[in-house]
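Annex B.
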Amino acid sequence: MAGDVVPVYGAHTAHRPRIAAFGFESGERDRFQLAFRNVKLAVEVVPLAAPPAGQTFDAAILHADEAAPALLGALRSSNRRMILYLVGPMPQIARLAQFGVNAALEGMTEAAITRAIEHTYLLLAGKLRRYTRVPLYVPVNIHAGGMSFTAITEDLSGGGVSVNSAPSSVLRMGEAVTVRLQLPGNETLLIPGIICRVSGGQVGVQFSRGPEQDRLRKWVDDFLE
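PilZ domain-containing protein: predicted C-alpha cells.
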C-alpha cells in the first residue's frame, strides 16, 4: 500500500553498505538491490568498470571470467574483509576460491540472488556473531575411511563446516573424517571431525577439539572483528 514503510537495517544510520557491481545490466543490479531490501537491509549498488580508486566499498559482485583473478586480487588488497559475490559456473568459481569468495551464483536468477543474499546479509549488516557460520566458498578435501573426495564449502565456523558436491550416498552420520581446508591467504588446516548431517549433495561436519580447530576459531574471530 502507498505510504507503507518497510523497516530496513541501516535506514536511519550514517553508513549504508556499498556494493560495487562489475559488468551487470541495470535490471540485474535492480534485482540484486531489491533482494537486500526483502531482508530489510538497505544497500547502495554502484556500477563500475574497473577497480575503484579512492572509493570505499563493503562488497562486490562480479563474473567468474578471465578478468576475475586480477579484479579479485585488487579488491582483496583494498579491503580484506570485503564480501565477494561471484557469478558463473561452479568449476570456475572453485578455481578462484583462494580469494575468499563469500557467495557463488550460477546465474543472476531471482532464486540464485535470494539464496546468496540470505547467506550473507547478516555479515554485510555487521550482525554476525562469533558462533555463526561464515559464508565462504573454498575447496576442501575430505578423507573418510579409504575414500577421499574434493568438495566446496558453503559456510564454516570454528565448530564445523557445510560442504556441497559431496558423495552423500556413500557417507553416513557419525562417520569419522579428516578435512583438509585451505583458507584465503593460503593457510592450510587438517582438522578431524565427524559427519553430523547428510542431505542430498550437502554434508555437514562437526570438528573435533584440537590445535588445528583452535587455529580455525582464531581465523573466524579475526574475520568477524
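DSSP finds five helices and twelve strands in the chain. The chain has two domains: 18-124, 136-224. Further annotation is deferred to the next reporting cycle.
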